[in-house]
Amino acid sequence: MSVPSSGGDEDEVVSAINTTPLVDVMLVLLIIFLITIPVVTQSIQLELPQEKNIPTQTKPENVVISVNKDGDTFWNMKLVPDNNALVEKLKEVSVKDPQPEVHIRGDAGARYEFVGKVVVACQRAGIVKVGFITEPSAEEVVR
Q: What integer pLDDT is reported at residue 10 of this predicted model?
């Protein structure tokens, strides 16, 4: 920093920041990021399934299993005491021809573990068709 002498028209000290180099560096970084982002976000080419909402066809032979937020399991409105009893009931149903569908209704506040146990019970019993029952959103009801 130079100190001006009291003599006259000498250069004054400039205290403003020169932002031109800063802008140049930022533009170079922006270009680098724009070039490298597509390389980083590569993924395996897949054809993902499309969403479709099919109304449930209620048949008398379908089994509806409900799980409340406390983890209690209900078989067509009747409480099932434990998971082994559920597997035994499902094994009885799985030998029928044609095999009925199992529809699982899980409470929105239920832990995934409770619903997962029902899915595992269906798998152990040999049930082929398992579906999840949901409520349509407000947008779908309007359509």
A: 64
